[in-house]
Design goal:
With 495 residues, the chain is an all-alpha fold. It has helices spanning 2-27, 29-36, 39-60, 63-73, 79-103, 105-112, 121-134, 136-144, 148-172, 177-202, 211-219, 222-234, 236-244, 246-256, 260-279, 286-316, 338-354, 356-360, 367-389, 391-416, 423-440, 447-466, 472-485, and strands spanning 319-321, 324-325. 79% of the residues lie in helices and 1% in strands. The chain has a two-stranded antiparallel ribbon with strand order 1-2. A hairpin with a 2-residue loop joins strand 1 (319-321) and strand 2.
């Protein structure tokens, strides 16, 4: 079991390094935007990208998950045929979708609530959607063939292009909002170009008749779930804009993006997790293995939650850009949402862990029940909580919906693919974290507060030890890691 978890950790590290680097580069755009754009303009960008996120789900219509499932079993056709069918299908449909959106740019902008002066970004968004759709299956193919390094290289290269282009468009050409979308279009195009060798190597121009219906049967049920899942991530922007204005959306977006550090951890794990559980589903120790992975995942994300909650506010006020703080002061008022968003991402990661049973047992038809219910609760909670609570109402709505989604998924999966998760150990993590975080709320600010919070991280570990969370083998592994972390330290001899 330990060897398999190490392999998962290794793949997670490869995806993680690229994800951290790429997302960090993307994150640098957030302070850039806060210093260049007004809250209203940033609100427009956030709203348009919210619509793009919705449409991404429709453009892919479940083909990524369907491809990964059938290429792992090869029940129908060979690897090239299973690649070709979804790739060409997505290519044709996305070309039609984007053509219609671009042709109807002005009406689309009016219906979407995009200000008339920004209607020209609609065709750019349509182009981004088309190009990104063409990369869905090629990127999935790299993941399923364990080509994590190539996957990472292409992802990071595309993000570098986007960041550099943003800097040029905003500072050199001073193109504002339009420059942001033009940069996205350029980045998506170059990413697709880098994937052309993968596409050429994987294509087979034959078209077996049975593959597409099977892929659609598996993938289409995930579309409502995907749309609902995307609603959980972005629907609060349009609602917040309608209730509080574009400036509120801009402030919310700038602070919501600070949750990127937790999202990084959840995303890089998920990249490695899905191929991992599909490839190990038939192992005799699969279920205990998945339970242990859940425990370690919750421990890691909880530790990161505490660290970020303790120190992130000080980081964003640090003058690192020629004497300017990381985030412009006019956006600081929304920082209170950050710990709530971080915790919401923890529950999203738990949901991603639990979803293994759905894919293994081919029960994707159950996904819409979970995500649509959570999305409806999310929408209702936003309308109920935003008027009295403002930005915090949108944040609490996000946490509530992810918590509900994880809880419902646990109940459903235990009926179709029961796993004995280490609930006692998970409870110990929750108790220790709750105690430490509550104490931190009274720590104040300044150097002394930073030192107190450092001590609280030690208290978190101590509480876990007192509650006997750690097993003997885990203590030994931790000591080995600490010895290896010391300069010049050689690995201990294997017994």
């Amino acid at each position: 079991m330990l060897d398999k978890i190490k392999r998962l950790g290794s793949d997670t590290a490869v995806y993680g390094i690229s994800t951290i680097l790429g997302r960090f580069l993307t994150f640098l755009l957030t302070p850039l935007y806060t210093h260049v754009l007004s809250p209203e303009d940033l609100g427009v960008v956030a709203t348009v990208y919210a619509y793009i996120a919705f449409l991404n789900v429709i453009y892919g219509y479940g083909m990524e998950g369907a491809y990964m499932k059938y290429v792992s079993t090869l029940e129908l056709g060979n690897r090239k045929q299973v690649f070709t069918v979804p790739f060409l299908a997505i290519g044709v449909t996305s070309l039609v979708f984007s053509g219609v959106i671009a042709a109807l740019a002005q009406p689309v902008a009016a219906v979407s609530g995009i200000p008339a002066g920004f209607a020209n970004v609609v065709p750019m968004g349509a182009g981004i959607l088309f190009l990104d759709a063409l990369t869905i299956v090629p990127f999935a193919a790299l993941r399923m063939s364990n080509r994590a390094r190539l996957f990472a290289t292409i992802k990071v290269a595309g993000i570098v292009v986007n960041v550099v282009s943003n800097v040029v468009m905003l500072f050199w050409f001073r193109m504002g909002v339009e420059g942001i979308f033009l940069s996205g279009l350029l980045s998506s195009g170059i990413t697709l170009l880098m994937l052309i060798p993968v596409i050429v190597q994987s294509l087979d121009l034959s078209w077996p008749t049975g593959i597409l219906p099977a892929l659609l049967k598996f993938g289409l049920p995930s579309v409502p779930a995907g749309i609902a899942g995307m609603m959980l991530q972005v629907i609060n922007r349009p609602i917040l804009g309608a209730l509080r204005g574009d400036a509120a959306v801009g402030i919310f977006q700038a602070n919501y993006r600070l949750g990127i550090f937790m999202m990084l951890l959840v995303s890089m794990f998920d990249f490695a997790w899905r191929p991992f559980f599909l490839n190990h589903a038939k192992d005799p120790d699969a279920r205990p293995l998945f339970a242990r992975v859940m425990t370690y995942f919750v421990l890691c994300t909880t530790t990161v939650f505490l660290l970020l909650s303790f120190y992130l506010y000080d980081l964003i006020r640090w003058p690192i850009f020629a004497g300017r703080p990381l985030i412009a002061p006019r956006f600081w008022e929304g920082f209170e949402i950050v710990p709530v968003i971080l915790l919401a991402y923890v529950f999203l990661g738990i949901y991603n862990n639990l979803i293994a049973g759905i894919y293994i047992e081919k029960k994707t038809a159950r996904l819409p029940l979970v995500t649509i219910t959570a999305a409806l609760v999310h929408v209702a909670a936003n309308f109920l909580l935003i008027p009295p609570l403002g930005l915090m109402g949108a944040a609490w709505s996000t946490l509530l919906s992810y918590l509900l989604m994880a809880g419902m998924m646990y109940v459903i999966v235990q009926r179709i693919y029961p796993v004995r998760y280490e609930t006692a150990r998970l409870a110990k993590i929750a108790v220790a974290a709750a105690v430490v975080y509550t104490i931190s709320l009274f720590s104040g600010e300044g150097l002394l507060a930073l030192l107190v919070k450092a001590g609280l991280m030690g208290l978190f570990v101590a509480l876990l030890a007192v509650m006997r969370f750690f097993e003997p083998g885990e203590w030994a592994a931790a000591r080995r890691l600490l010895r290896l972390a010391r300069p010049g330290q050689k690995p201990p001899a294997e017994s």
